[in-house]
Every structure is written in structure tokens, then in C-alpha cells.
Amino acid sequence: MMFAGAGRLAILRSTAWKASGLALLLAIAGCGAVTSEAAADRAIRSVSSSTEISVLETRLSTFHQEAPQSEVVPADTLVWAVTLAGTFEAPSCGPAGNTECPPPNHRALVLIDAQTGEFIFASMPAPAR
């Protein structure tokens, strides 16, 4: 993955960087990365909860590290992984005629593109870490 900014070019070849290393790389590259606060705000606006939503954790990562089985975006896409607490109801109660809905989830993982701030993916419940 390459980042261009202010006439400089930084190349990230490994997804094994720690979040602080990725944040430093983005800052040095000057690519106009999204802040963790902006990512958390976008994550909250991307899901629906019947109770107040709170942010439990925001960390810089790659899409593959957070959703290794998915191919929604390239694996090396830098993402803000935002873990939220709330009451997240199932989008469906199953087939027509089903009278029992699954219980709500209380944690959600939302992935936000670290460069654009766009919503990428949500998982409910949030995977155990």
C-alpha cells in the first residue's frame, strides 16, 4: 500500500505494524488520515442501538487483521477498528412466521477506512480479542 502526501511517498509493505507505528507512518506521510475521534463518530452513526452507544476502544489496524474471512476491501486497507457498546438488535428474526428473535448483542465492531472515513464493515457481536 502506498501513501502520497506533500510530495513524499511512504510504502507500507507489512501488516504486522503496531497501531502506533501505523499512526506515525500516516502522520509522516501527510496523507490526511482520519482521526480516531472522527472514526468513532462515524462508527456510532453507522449502527443502530436501542440504548445509548459508547465507544469502548478505537485502534488503528488493517482490514485483514480485523476481518480475515472477508474480502469487502483489500486486506491491507488501513482501518480504524471501533468497538462499541450498546443494544444492537438482530436485523431479522429469521424466516417468516418465526416468533422468537435472537437476543440483542451488546458489543459491535465497526471498521472505518482510515484514509477516507467511510464505513466499511460492522460485526455484531464484536469478536473476542
Task: Tell me what you see in this structure.
This protein starts with a strand and ends in a 6-residue tail after the last strand. The strands form two sheets. The protein has a four-stranded antiparallel sheet with strand order 3-4-5-6. Strands 1-2 form a two-stranded antiparallel ribbon. It is built from three helices and six strands, in the order ββααβαβββ. Helix content is 20%, strand content 33%. With 129 residues, it is of the alpha+beta class.
Q: What is the radius of gyration computed over CA atoms, rounded to a whole number of angstroms?
A: 16 Å
Task: Provide the residue-averaged pLDDT.
Answer: 80
Number of strands: 6
Q: What low-confidence regions span 5 or more consecutive residues with pLDDT below 50?
A: 1-19
Strand neighbour order, sheet with most strands: 3-4-5-6
What is the element string, with H for helices and E for strands?
EEHHEHEEE
CATH architecture of the domain at 33-92 and 101-123: Roll
Helix content: 10-25%
Helix/strand class:
alpha+beta
Distance between the termini: 26 Å
Give the overall silhouette: globular
Number of helices: 3
Oligomer: single chain
CATH first level of the domain at 33-92 and 101-123: which class? Alpha Beta
Largest sheet: 4 strands, antiparallel
CATH topology of the domain at 33-92 and 101-123: Nuclear Transport Factor 2, Chain: A
Strand content bin? 25-35%
Brief overview, please?
The protein is an alpha+beta fold and 129 residues long. It is 20% helix and 33% strand.
